[in-house]
């Protein structure tokens, strides 16, 4: 366990300086807080945490070197039902690809080895009743993506009706998933709706940067 | 906007009112000279409460072996004080229909409250020495202050929720409320109970369910609601892991004389079995 009085906040990898990090007493570690649409990759012994409603987070790490990270995304609802599955087509899938590629590429770029990657999946809950199950779409997308990439999901907690708090320690691979009480549903759904509006307004370009 | 508790509760006074039938039963129960016949008369004058009372009396909630088909019979086997509890329990959810909010659905809100009530009742039966029906009602009411805060001050209320989420769900909501608003939902609920002139036991349970270490007149009942609140959160997210929810004050277990390991899983499981029927009985329109 890291002692906050003697340990300092280790530098983040280039490109992740904007992610908010603070000492978290309960985790005994510095912790990066991810908002919808963000991702974070680290070599440090630190935690990454986020809250998920119908959004999904992939937690990916090199299980040998401990380099790893987390993303937090959802597919825009604008695509036609069923159409999103055709790989590479439509802005919806493009957005999911973008979130997954970025996470994996950053890990590889910083010394991660593709055959050591392990993946954990969380989120995709149906937290608001009487709405189309967008969580389910996000889950299917993430599973399809991981399968296509030849990677394997080693653990997951997805679907159902709960929002979740996910805390990931890439160094050890440890994950803590806490289902959240319904009191938080609307607030989390609000955050996700606002995020969805920003990505629907500004769809990602067709090209994904490859490293 | 009112920034103090009394003003806040006064503001909603006309929007949330208790039904006449409860107020009249409450007066009769408080008066030692009143009779079962008088209470039965008051009940019978409210057909919708009469129906709800008989439904509850004949449900597995009480498990009486014979059919309870008349109001006097219901009162004599359930008890006059318990009838008062039931009158409040079956009407409180609809009393708050006039106080909507955009932060939590009424369904989700009352489901948590009902889980708390069911678990408090189960624990009260095990612990003995407390009236299970009174504790049930106290637990059902424990978060009413939240509905007042959510309706009157939605922005600070949401900021408090965001603070909880930012802490990784480590900070309890009442502490986030104190930090952002200056007071918490338990204090607001306590004030509402006072203005409604509810029995002091209910008032104390509502006001101190997060903070059981003060000088209390009803320490056991308050402790039961405190414990039941946390177990209700466990039931809500289907977990038996105490790490998933805020801690229970160990003093609470001492007060009620129960051993956590012996009762937690059983109480949660039992409440999960009862919840659907209870929703029909207490939250149904």
Features:
heterodimer; A: 211 residues; alpha+beta; five-stranded mixed sheet; 3 helices; B: 285 residues; mainly alpha; 67% helix; 0% strand; globular
Summed up, what is this model?
The complex is a heterodimer of chains A (211) and B (285). With 211 residues, chain A is α+β, with helices and mostly antiparallel strands.
Structural class by helix and strand composition of chain B: mainly alpha
| Side-by-side strand order of the widest sheet of chain A | 1-2-4-9-10
Instruction: Please summarize the sheet with the most strands of chain B.
Output: none
Intertermini distance of chain A: 34 Å
**Cα shape of chain A:** globular
How many β strands of chain B by DSSP? 0
What structural class do you assign from the helix and strand content of chain A?
alpha+beta
Counting DSSP H or I runs of 4 or more residues, the number of helices of chain B is 17
Average pLDDT taken over every residue of chain B: 94
The proportion of residues forming helix of chain A, as a percent range, comes to 10-25%
- Return the string of H and E elements of chain B: HHHHHHHHHHHHHHHHH
Q: What is the typical, i.e. mean, pLDDT of chain A?
A: 87
Approximately how much beta-strand content do the residues of chain B carry? Answer: under 5%
Multimeric state of these chains? heterodimer
Strand content of chain A: 25-35%
Low-confidence stretches of chain B: none
Shape of chain B: globular
CA(first)-CA(last) distance of chain B: 32 Å
Measured by residues with Cβ under 8 Å of the partner chain's Cβ, the largest interface is:
A-B, 24 and 25 residues
């Amino acid at each position: 366990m890291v002692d906050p009085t003697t340990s300092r906040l280790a530098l983040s990898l280039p490109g992740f300086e904007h992610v908010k990090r603070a000492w978290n007493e309960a985790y005994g570690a510095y912790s990066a807080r991810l908002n919808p649409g963000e991702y974070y990759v680290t070599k440090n012994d630190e935690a990454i945490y986020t809250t998920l409603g119908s959004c999904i987070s992939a937690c990916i790490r090199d299980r040998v070197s401990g380099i790893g990270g987390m993303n937090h995304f959802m597919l825009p609802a604008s695509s036609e039902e069923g159409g999103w599955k055709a790989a590479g087509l439509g802005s919806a899938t493009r957005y999911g690809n973008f979130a997954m590629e970025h996470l994996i590429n950053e890990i590889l770029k910083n010394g991660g080895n593709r055959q050591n990657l392990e993946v954990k999946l969380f989120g995709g809950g149906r937290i608001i009743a009487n709405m189309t199950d967008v969580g389910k779409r996000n889950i299917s997308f993430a599973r399809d993506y991981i399968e296509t990439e030849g990677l394997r999901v080693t653990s997951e907690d997805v679907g159902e009706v709960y929002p979740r708090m996910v805390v990931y320690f890439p160094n050890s691979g440890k994950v803590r998933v806490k289902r959240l009480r319904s009191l938080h549903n609307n607030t989390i759904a609000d955050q996700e709706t606002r995020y969805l509006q920003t990505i629907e307004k500004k769809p990602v370009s067709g090209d994904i940067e490859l490293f | 906007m009112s920034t103090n508790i009394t003003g806040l509760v006064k503001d909603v006074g006309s929007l949330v009112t208790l039904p006449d039938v409860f107020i009249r039963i409450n007066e009769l129960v408080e008066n030692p000279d009143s009779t079962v016949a008088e209470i039965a008369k008051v009940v019978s004058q409210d057909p919708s409460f009469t129906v709800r009372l008989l439904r509850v009396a004949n449900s597995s909630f009480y498990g009486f072996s014979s059919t309870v088909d008349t109001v006097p019979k219901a009162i004599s086997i359930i008890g006059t004080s318990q009838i008062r509890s039931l009158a409040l329990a079956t009407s409180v959810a609809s009393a708050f229909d006039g106080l909507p909010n955009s932060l939590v659905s009424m369904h989700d809100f009352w489901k948590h409250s009902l889980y708390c009530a069911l678990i408090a009742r189960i624990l009260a039966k095990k612990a003995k020495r407390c009236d299970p029906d009174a504790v049930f009602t106290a637990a059902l009411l424990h978060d009413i202050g939240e509905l007042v805060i959510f309706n009157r001050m939605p922005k600070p209320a949401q900021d408090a929720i965001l603070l909880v989420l930012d802490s990784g769900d480590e900070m309890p909501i009442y502490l986030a409320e104190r930090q952002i608003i200056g007071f918490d939902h338990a204090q607001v609920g306590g004030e509402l109970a006072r203005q409604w002139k509810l029995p002091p036991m209910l008032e104390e349970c509502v006001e101190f369910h997060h903070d059981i270490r003060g000088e209390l007149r009803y320490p056991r009942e308050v402790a039961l609601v405190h414990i039941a609140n946390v177990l209700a959160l466990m039931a809500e997210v289907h977990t038996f892991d105490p790490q998933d929810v805020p801690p229970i004050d160990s003093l609470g277990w001492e007060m009620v004389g129960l051993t956590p390991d012996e009762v937690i899983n059983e109480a949660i499981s039992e409440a999960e079995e009862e919840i659907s029927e209870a929703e029909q009985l207490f939250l149904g329109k």
